[in-house]
Design goal:
Arc Repressor Mutant, subunit A
C-alpha cells in the first residue's frame, strides 16, 4: 500500500512538520498498523521531492517519541500502541501548540475556541 503523505509547499508549515504530523495521523487512525514498514529515507525523500535530511529528521523525531523503531535488518517500522504516547498526551500537546499560535496571533481565548468549534463542525465524515 503506498504511503499517503503530501507536502504542500505553500502551506507555511515546514515540510518536515507536514510529513511528521501526517505520519502520526496515519498511525493514530490505524492506517499504518504496528509492524508496518515505512519507506526507506531516500525513497520517501525522492517520492516527496524533499532532501533526505528532511525525511531523516522526521524519522528521528518519530523514533524519539516512540512512534517508530529502526533496526538495520527491518528498516523503520511502526511500534505497538503501548510504546507510543497516549491520546490524552497528544491532545494536550496539540492544545498547547494551538494556544501558543493563537496567542502569537493576538486573538483572545473565545476567538480561539470559536475557531476550534468551527473546525470541528467542518470535519469531513470519517475524520478522526
Amino acid at each position: 500500500m503506498p504511503l499517503k503523505v503530501v507536502v504542500d509547499a505553500d502551506s507555511g508549515i515546514a515540510p518536515w512538520r507536514q510529513v511528521h504530523d501526517q505520519l502520526i495521523r496515519l498511525i493514530t487512525t490505524g492506517a499504518l498498523t504496528p509492524g508496518t514498514r515505512l519507506p526507506p529515507i531516500r525513497q520517501l525523500a525522492r517520492d516527496l521531492a524533499l532532501a533526505s535530511g528532511t525525511v531523516a529528521r522526521v524519522y528521528r523525531e518519530l523514533e524519539a517519541n516512540g512512534w517508530v523503531r529502526t533496526a538495520r535488518a527491518k528498516g523503520t517500522v511502526v511500534t505497538d500502541a503501548g510504546d507510543r504516547p497516549d491520546k490524552a498526551a497528544l491532545l494536550r500537546a496539540a492544545a498547547v501548540e494551538y494556544a501558543r499560535t493563537a496567542h502569537d496571533l493576538g486573538v483572545d481565548a473565545e476567538t480561539a475556541l470559536a475557531a476550534v468549534r468551527s473546525a470541528w463542525s467542518a470535519r469531513e465524515p470519517g475524520d478522526a
